[in-house]
Amino acid sequence: NLAVHRMEPCLFKQSYLLADHLGKGAFAEVRVAINRVTGKRYAAKIIDRKRITQLEKRKKMDENFRIETSILSRVRHDSIVQVHGVFEERDYLYLVLDLASDGELFDEIVSREFLKEDDARRVMLQLLLAIRHLNRLGIVHRDIKLENILLEDKSSLRIKLADFGLAKIVGEQMFMKTVCGTPMYVAPEVLTVRKIGRYDNLVDMWSIGVVLYICLCGFPPFSDELSPPPMRDQIIHGMYSFPSPYWDTVSEDARELVHLMLQVDPRNRITVDAALAHPWLRARRQGIRWTI
Ligand code: ADP
Ligand code: MG
């Protein structure tokens, strides 16, 4: 029962008090929002409609906001940010979300350099369960990366997947033509715009493979900072390696899972269910508190 408050001026500010800045994207600014009645803290994703003067662009932005809102409000999962309110005012659009108060997984990896295998496994398990949930709803996220995986609690590494700004419902009418997502994490079939039909949701699995790789060693598998060819070609040809000494101590099972996720042909790429059944993820699962 998500009420959408349309076009009523300042309704958001009547209900919430804006506090600290949490992050900034292309169009959105994200700030802590405190409910004036309950005192509970949320994250508000705020879009400044005034910034876009061109009517067509503004319409597009409104539409994207509605898509993000409608997709996110269908989803209810422990590891995915939940929507608590939507406000559409003349000048601003607001999306009130669960607050992931420990920031981006990106920063946590930068500060730890990389994750121990047990910690990487925790993150992976939650991420895969979140994606399995999305798959079942026919939703493809399309922008999974370390900046969009947020931490509710950094010591236990409880994650919340965020930013459904590029998400899509997989429909019969579409194979995903739009080249979107962040280059470093983008699947080869997105770059080559291959017809892939029912394999659409596997673009998320590729990105998860990139995330797992970075978790385990602290640097990305594909990058323009490496020797040529350009990153785009590295991705299209699946050119990456497990350089020594960084990967020397990483288990064979973990490397195998990365390898299965980073399959150039989506038909060969591991599915969510198969990934969840992979030996690396089955190890030590007993000790994990959340439900599977
Ligand atoms: P964009 O679509 O512009 O990338 P995001 O939804 O990814 O917007 O938000 C931008 C940044 O704001 C995120 O990378 C993160 O640092 C912060 N952020 C977003 N949502 C939350 C949240 N629910 N809790 C805490 N921080 C958040
Ligand atoms: Mg983002």
From TrEMBL:
Which organism is this protein's natural source?
Coemansia asiatica
Amino-acid positions noted as binding ATP in the UniProt annotation, renumbered to this chain: 45
Give the similarity note.
Belongs to the protein kinase superfamily. CAMK Ser/Thr protein kinase family. CHEK2 subfamily.
Q: List, for all copies, the residue spans of the domain called Protein kinase.
A: 16-281
Q: Which protein are we looking at? A: Serine/threonine protein kinase
Gene encoding the protein: DUN1_1
